[in-house]
Amino acid sequence: MRLLASALGLLLIATTAQANTINFGAPTNNSTCSQTGNSADRSCTNSASVNNGANDATASAAIIGQASADHGITTNPTAIADTTISYSIPYTVTRTWNTTTGPTPQLIIPNQTITLNLNLSGSVAKDNSQATGGLGQALLDVTSGNVSTGRFGSVSFGIDRSQTGGGGLAATNFNDTVPDITGTAGRNFDDFTGELDDEISLVAQLPLNYQDWEDKFPPNLSPTYNWNATPYSGTQSFTDTLTVTFRLRAESRPSGSVSVTGGEALACAGQTSPLGGFDLDNNAAVNCGSGFTITATVTQTGTTSELVPEPGTLMLIGSGLAGMVAFGARRRS
Prior knowledge:
- With 333 residues, the chain is mainly β.
- The protein has one domain (2-332).
- It has 2 helices and 16 strands.
- The chain has helices at 2-16, 311-332, and strands spanning 20-24, 28-29, 32-36, 42-52, 58-69, 79-99, 106-127, 135-142, 147-149, 153-155, 159-163, 169-184, 214-216, 233-253, 264-269, 291-307.
- A hairpin with a 3-residue loop joins β9 (147-149) and β10.
C-alpha cells in the first residue's frame, strides 16, 4: 500500500506540472480549387502545419496558400485560379485534478481560460503594364465565417480586398489581427442533458457538472481507496474543432481589342507563386506575409473545490442508484 501511495504521489507531481494543456491535432484539408485556361498560366496551392509548445500550454497553426494567373497565350488568353482554402484542426484541452487528504478531503479542479489569437497577412497584386496590355484581377475574400469552433462560435475579419481592371501595376499588402477570442473552460461546459455522464467518478458520480470532459484516472484506483490516507490525481479533457476558411482568386484575361494576351495577378497568404519568373513584370515587391496563423493558449485562473464523500457514503450512493434502476425496471415490467 505504501508503494501504491508513493506511485500515486509521483503521478500527482508529474501531472500537476502540466495542469493546463492544449494541443492541435492533424489538420483536415477541405480546400477546393477551380482552374480554367492554359495549365502553364494558373496555379493554386495550399497547406497547413501545426506546432505544440514544449509545455503544451500553447499551440499554434499556420495555413498558407496562393492563387496566381500569368500571361495568357493567343489561343487561350484567359487564365483563372480560384481557390477556397479551408482546414479543420482538432484541438484537445486537458486539465489535471487532484484530491487532498482528510479529515475533510476535497476534489480540486483547475478553472481555465482558453484564448485564440488570429492573424491573416499576405498580398493581392496585379500587373497590366506589359506592352500589349491585358487585365489582371486578384482577390482575397474572408467576409463570412472564416473561423469557427463549436465552443466559441464564429468570427470574420470582414475583409474583401481586390485589385481589379486595367491600368498598370498595383499591389496591396494586408496584415489583420483579431485578438482574444476567448471562452472559459471552467464555466461548466454542459451537454444540457441533465445526465451525470462524463463527470469525475470513482465509485459513484460526483455531481460537479463538468459534463463535456472525458475523465482519465491514474492506475490502481479501486472502490477500496481511502481519501484520508492517499491523495489522488487524474485528468479531464475535451476535444473541439477549429475550422478556418478564406478565398483567393487570380484572373488574367485580354483587354478587348487592345490585347490578345492577359495580365498577371497574384493573391497570396504566406506562399509565393510557383509559376516560374512570376514577378508581375515590373519586379513588384509582393509580400505574401505569414498566411493565416492561430495561437491558442490555455491558462489556469483558479480552482474549484468540492468536498469528497467518504467511501462508505459513495457506496451507499451507488447502491441507492442501483436500487432505483432496479425499481424502475420492475415497474416497467
